[in-house]
Amino acid sequence: MQTSDKTQRRLEALIDSVTDTYGVGRPIDSLESTALPNQRKIVEALLELEHVAYMGFYSTRVLTSENLRFHIGEHVQRATSILVEQIGRALAYKRHGGGMPGPAEIEWSEEAVLSMLEQLPRLRELLALDVDAAFQGDPAASSIEEIIFSYPAIQAITVYRIAHELFLRNVPMVPRIMTEHAHSKTGIEIHPGARIGRSFFIDHGTGVVIGATAVIGDNVKLYQGVTLGALSVPRIREGETPKQRHPTLEDGVTIYAGATILGGETVIGKGAVVGSNCWITRSVAPGERISFAVGDEQGPR
Fold first, then answer.
1. pLDDT (tens digit per residue) in 70-83
2. Does residue 5 fall inside a structural domain?
3. Residue 43's domain is classified under what CATH number?
4. Rounded-to-integer distance, Cα 65 and Cα 122, Å
5. Which phi and psi angles does 213 have, rounded to 5°?
6. % helix / strand / coil in the chain, to the nearest 5?
7. Quick one: 116 and 205 in the same domain?
8. Contact at 8 Å (CB) between 229 and 210?
């Protein structure tokens, strides 16, 4: 529908007024959009790597032992091309405040990407354990295929494990873009800096938050709405060594729905169980069970 002249004049005035707000030094005024990392391209690279992780589940073509290497190579090559450019852009922004990446940034990016991709065999081993943990931990799961196709936790954990490898290599911006994309798709927020062990399972998952310095051991199970968060701390100054702000969950811990566990000195000991809706800011001994009883005014026990 064509707008009226009156509406068009108002739109032109509005456009002028918005344009005039640029260039006054606000942090959101960057005009380097063509040189910044592109979220859509980073998501494309993630999809390529998800194909590699779960080739038989994502492929639309017949796979055989003869053509498997070729198809894996296609996805790895495309992911590499995208990530080298996007990480190069992120690095150029970090080093120079913008502009297209130069040879030094591209060389650094290539090394970071190749180093991460070399971990794919190990990541597939970890993801197989995560999928099996979901199958063993959820009686409602009818098959491994159902878990890979439909469980949001598996998508969030897959993205986290890829992003974490880039985070370990000091890649700026891109790992967080990856995990926040997974957050928007699944409702599960896992910071790429968190350290998560083997056989990790999140049941249901919506509303789970895992902070940047959280440490999670092997065979840990979380339910929906769990927060592994930080107590209020001042922002660290440049050059300072960051301290652990988020809790540690040792092996075999189970945290039920809605529980909040806060603080870098808080350790949930091996095999402990924290019940639903508990608020925890102190350490819990190995094997201890913490819960709220109905009508209990004494707090957690």
1. 888 999 999 999 99
2. no
3. 1.10.3130.10
4. 21
5. -110, 15
6. 45, 10, 45
7. no
8. no
In sequence order, the 6+-apart residues with CB closer than 8 A to the CB of 162 are 46, 49, 116, 123, 178
Strand partners of residue 209: 189, 227
Task: Output Rg (C-alpha) for the chain, integer angstroms.
Answer: 23
- 12-29 average pLDDT score: 82
d(CA 247, CA 228) in angstroms, rounded, equals 6
What is the separation of C-alpha 290 from the centre of its chain, rounded to a whole number of angstroms?
A: 28
Amino acid at 101: P
Considering the domain boundaries, does residue 26 fall inside one? Answer: no
Pair (70, 142) in one structural domain: yes
Answer yes or no: do 62 and 173 share one domain.
yes
Domain of residue 201, residue span: 194-234+242-301
Global pTM reads 0.88
Q: The tokens of 251 are what? A: 């092996």
Q: 191 CB contacts (<8 Å, ≥6 apart)? A: 176, 179, 210, 211, 212, 214
Rounded to the nearest 5 degrees, what angle is found at the Cα of 190, between the Cα atoms of 291 and 283? 35
Angstrom distance (rounded) from CA 107 to CA 120: 21
- Say how far apart CA 38 and CA 174 lie, in whole Å: 9
In a domain, 15, yes or no: no
Determine whether 236 is exposed, middle or buried from the number of CB atoms within 10 Å of its CB (0-12, 13-18, 19+). Answer: exposed
Q: What is the DSSP letter of 23?
A: T
Find the length of the chain.
301
Domain count along the chain: 2
- Angstrom distance (rounded) from CA 267 to CA 248: 5
Q: Check whether residue 229 and residue 172 sit in a common domain.
A: no
78 and 176 inside one domain: yes
pLDDT tens, 258-286? 999 999 999 999 999 999 999 999 999 99
